[in-house]
Amino acid sequence: MSGVVYWLDMAGVIVFALSGVILACRSRMDPIGMLVLAAVTGIGGGTLRDLVLGVRPVFWVTDPTYLWVILATVSVSLMGFHYIHRLSRGFLPIADAFGLALFTVIGTHKALLLGSSGTVAVLMGMMTGVAGGMIRDVLAQRVPMVLREEVYATAAMAGGIVYVALHALEAPLTIAIAASLGVTLGLRLAAIHWHLALPVFAWVTVPPKTQDEAAPLSTPQKAKERVRIIRRERKKR
Fold first, then answer.
1. CA within 20 to 30 Å of 185's CA: 8, 68, 210, 236, which one?
2. Which of 180, 156, 157 is nearest to 167 (CA)?
3. Taking the C-alpha atoms of 124, 126, 131 and 132 in order, what is their torsion angle to the nearest 10 degrees?
4. Number of domains in the chain
5. Is residue 100 assigned to a domain?
């Protein structure tokens, strides 16, 4: 079964590296930028996980195959560059969802293997799944998906909890992996398809009213429009 986990880890690296390549293409980066985004997405989360758990050296230093897989993914993507541009906008979130599910399982499994508690294992699974995507989005000057109202980290946490629970019940490893993958991927894909989101708590700043502004403002868009109207009236005077 260690071989199955290893190949799942490799599959996660490929999928996440591909999501980094797609975002690099849409951000008009050169091949070096593509490689950087693919690398931080593919191994960033696992690197942070190993550093937190005290694993020395980190996994890709022990097994450079991960680096070669990332390089091969970027090379193949460069040859199919024109096809990447034709991919729909929805392909990146879907590819990211598969990477999230795979890495959540791998991170949770490795934390339990090292003797961590169930709570720590869930957090390590979530970190492995979301950290690489966060670094990728920051480098591409995007708000990371985990910081938006989307169901993202919640899906990873749910998948990690399922894996830890089945591990505690001494379920077969294949069942634990399949159930965790199914929960994480199912929640994330459902959120993408039905636009599910967590509630957002935010203050809306309303500009002070003037004599020309009698109607109450209900949204930031209306507030901006009213400010533009007031400025035009002042210029006419």
1. 68
2. 180
3. 100
4. 1
5. yes
For 190, counting Cβ atoms within 10 Å of its Cβ (0-12 exposed, 13-18 middle, 19+ buried), the class is: middle
| Domain membership flag for residue 119 | yes
pLDDT, tens digit only, all 237 positions of the chain: 578 899 999 999 999 999 999 999 888 899 999 999 999 999 999 999 999 999 999 999 999 999 999 999 999 999 887 787 777 778 889 999 999 999 999 999 999 999 999 999 999 999 999 999 999 999 999 988 888 778 999 999 999 999 999 999 999 999 999 999 999 999 999 999 998 888 876 665 555 555 444 455 555 656 667 777 777 776 666
C-alpha distances in angstroms, 233 versus 136, 216, 223, 229? Answer: 45, 19, 16, 6
- Give the residue from 100, 104, 218 showing the smallest Cα distance to 160: 104
Domain residues for 37? 3-194
Spatial distance between the Cα atoms of 94 and 219, rounded to a whole number of angstroms:
32
Has residue 212 been placed in a domain? no
Cross-strand pairs, 197 = 150
Of 97, 203, 87, the closest CA to residue 150 belongs to 97
